[in-house]
From TrEMBL:
It comes from Planosporangium thailandense. NCBIfam families: PRK05444.2-2. This is 1-deoxy-D-xylulose-5-phosphate synthase. Its cofactor is thiamine diphosphate; Mg(2+). The lineage of its organism: Bacteria, Bacillati, Actinomycetota, Actinomycetes, Micromonosporales. Residues 278-441 form the Transketolase-like pyrimidine-binding domain.
């Protein structure tokens, strides 16, 4: 009988002997390969964390003791051991198992944010709370060597060193983020892995305990070290040396990122089941390579994601002009500001969601100084299987309030090339944003009017349909549906969506309705800005802004989620017809109730 069949919950691990535990680890590895190859997901990280997770669950009593996974992409074994093995067939599917810890799934899961370098801060606060309440509950934080390159980790360590709380820090050191982990911390960990203690250890220097390096695949050694840390009465870093992708040869052989994230793949070969199309990332990468050959001042900046953001070719051609800061977005942005102060034009390639973390740096280190920095936001809008903290749905709203920041949203390959060149040719801060998707066929403009691309220009349209970025294609498909229903629309791609192009006022005046559609939150998005822009200029044309709701969007496929929020052609067409059917008059409606009596001043209640 498979050992896995004996494990319904972590307590069931206690009775297993060494051979059974070894067999269990092998069974979990085989299960991970089979499941993740079938569904897609994080294969390399999870193959490296099997013994680590078994040892943690044998040493600590979850959920009484709390286990926090930094980033959370390496928590599949944790999910298997906490009763969710049977749900792996739904991994990262709409309504299925999340690829990260999920409080709705299990009391064993505590934090859901998949942004790196947060675990030790959560742990510091939690352990402090337990100390204040005299709770005898251990707090364990599993943090990768990549996550340790993030500044928040060091802010937490600085506090843990003097905190009344106690945390067992399980440093899962496989020497890699996607690629080899960058920076001095990584070099220090490598020295420690090699047994070189001449420089001491950083953690001891801060007054924290340090145990290791421990073989992260040797269960008895792991359990002994974890038990020592647990019983030490102080915060201890247990330095575990693991191998990302262990046990699956195609992952072990993957020099790029040890199969960090895989699509559905053939388990025999490790090759993708579907040959990938031409992605926005590919296009950006090749255009930046071309630009790099034309402009020596262009510097590519990445926060530990050179390959996934398309910078590999640029880095190979211009190694001295590629900066990998580690998982340190705030530093990456302000270092880019420094590069610009030094006469360079940095191109910061980053997933839209991760730039959230560096808003202050964009606002006050870059834009306040009007510096020529270009932010290329990949994975903007709905990304899909990585769920709420990975959708890049806030950039248009959040960055829309940054004075002097120009934002482009290309709709196809031609406009990506154009707008990227315009961005790096601009003397101030710029953004170019595009989704996690294959690039659709070009949509040539019928006419370009003062920088605005008119994609469809019928004779007597009532509606001006503004499609932002890749959703310009959706707007065109919606216009086809509407035309078939006898309702012609003008379709416009603004190209540069912030600041609002003044020519939009003239176009809006010539229509009875403006409908905008964007792959981002409605609140504060491009549609809202256009409505305010027109209102400020007393353009009476009503605006209907279509976009994402102000809520955390679950995981699922990009197309499923865009349809769920009516950001597909059918949804957009229905919204146009619905808006046209409503009375557009500005005539005031008769007041329904009795005249408003003067109200007594409220007593400061929040509902005032
Ligand atoms: C703030 C932030 N930036 C970037 C990422 C993308 N990302 C996901 S996992 C990962 C590498 C993590 O490396 P490490 O912590 O060593 O974990 P490992 O995958 O090696 O187990 C990165 C950069 C992220 N999740 N959060
Ligand atoms: C965990 C993490 O932040 C990334 O690994 C994330 O899975 C991004 O995946 P893609 O690069 O496939 O969008
Ligand atoms: Mg790592």
């Amino acid at each position: 009988m498979p050992i896995l069949d004996l494990i319904a919950e972590p307590a069931d691990l206690a009775d297993l002997d060494h051979d059974q535990l070894t067999a269990l680890a092998a069974e979990i590895r085989a299960f991970l390969v089979e499941s993740v190859c079938r569904a897609g997901g994080h294969l390399g990280p999870n193959l490296g964390a099997v013994e680590l997770t078994i040892a943690i669950h044998r040493t600590f009593r979850s959920p009484h003791d709390r286990i926090i996974f930094d980033t959370g992409h390496q928590a599949y074994t944790h999910k298997i051991l906490t009763g969710r093995r049977d749900r792996f067939g739904t991994l990262r599917r709409a309504g299925g198992l999340s690829g990260y810890p999920s409080r709705a799934e299990s009391p064993h899961d505590l934090t859901e944010n998949s942004h790196a370098s947060t675990a030790l801060s959560y742990a510091d606060g939690l352990a402090r709370a337990y100390a204040l309440d005299g709770c005898d509950r251990a707090v364990v934080a599993v943090v990768g060597d990549g996550a340790v390159t993030g500044g928040l980790t060091w802010e937490a360590l600085n506090n843990l060193a003097v905190s009344p709380g106690r945390v067992v820090v399980v440093l899962n050191d496989n020497g890699r983020s996607y690629g080899p982990t960058a920076g001095g911390v990584a070099a220090h960990l490598a020295r420690l892995r090699g047994g070189d203690r001449t420089l001491g250890d950083l953690f001891g220097a801060l007054g924290l305990g340090y145990l290791g390096p421990v073989d992260g695949h040797d269960l008895p050694a792991l359990e002994a070290a974890l038990a020592r840390a647990r019983d030490s009465g102080r915060t201890v870093v247990v330095h575990c040396v693991t191998r990302k992708g262990l046990g699956y040869p195609p992952a072990e052989a993957d020099e790029v990122d040890r199969m960090h994230t895989v699509p559905v793949i053939d388990p025999e070969t490790g090759h993708p089941a579907r040959s990938p199309g031409r992605t926005w990332t590919d296009l950006f990468g090749s255009e930046l390579l071309a630009l790099g050959g034309e402009r020596e001042d262009l510097i590519a900046v990445s926060a530990a994601m050179t390959a996934p953001t398309g910078l590999t070719a640029f880095g190979q051609a211009f190694p001295e002009r590629l900066v990998d800061t580690g998982i340190a977005e705030q530093h990456a942005v302000t270092a880019a500001a420094g590069l610009a102060l030094g006469g360079k034009h940095p191109v910061v390639a980053i997933y839209a969601t991760f730039l959230n973390r560096a808003f202050d740096q964009v606002l006050l280190d870059v834009a306040l100084h009007r510096l020529p920095v270009t932010f290329v936001l990949d994975r903007s809008g709905i990304t899909g299987p990585d769920g709420p903290s990975h959708h890049g749905m806030w950039d248009l709203a959040v960055l829309g309030v940054v004075p002097g920041l120009r934002i482009a949203a290309p709709r196809d390959a031609t406009t990506l090339r154009e707008e990227l060149r315009e961005a790096v040719g601009h003397g101030g801060p710029t953004v170019v944003r595009f989704p996690k998707a294959d690039v659709a066929a070009d949509i040539p403009p019928v006419r370009r009017v003062r920088g605005l691309d008119l994609l469809r220009l019928p004779s007597r349209p009532r509606t001006l349909l503004v499609g932002v970025g890749a959703l310009a294609g959706t707007a065109m498909a919606a216009a086809d549906l509407l035309a078939a229903a006898g309702e012609e629309c003008t379709v416009l791609d603004p190209r540069w969506v912030r600041p609002i192009n003044p020519a939009l006022a003239t176009l809006a005046r010539a229509h009875r309705l403006v409908v905008t559609v964007e792959d981002g939150v409605r609140s504060g998005g491009v549609g809202a800005a256009i409505a305010q822009f027109l209102s400020d200029r007393e353009v009476p044309t009503p605006v209907r802004a279509l976009g994402l709701p102000t809520r955390f969007v679950p995981h699922g496929s990009r197309d499923e989620l865009l349809s769920r929020y009516r950001l597909d052609p059918e949804g957009v067409a229905a919204a146009v017809l619905d808006a046209l059917a409503r009375p557009q008059s500005a005539e005031p409606h008769p007041w329904p109730g009795r005249p408003l009596a003067a109200r007594a001043p409220v007593n400061g209640s929040v509902n005032g």
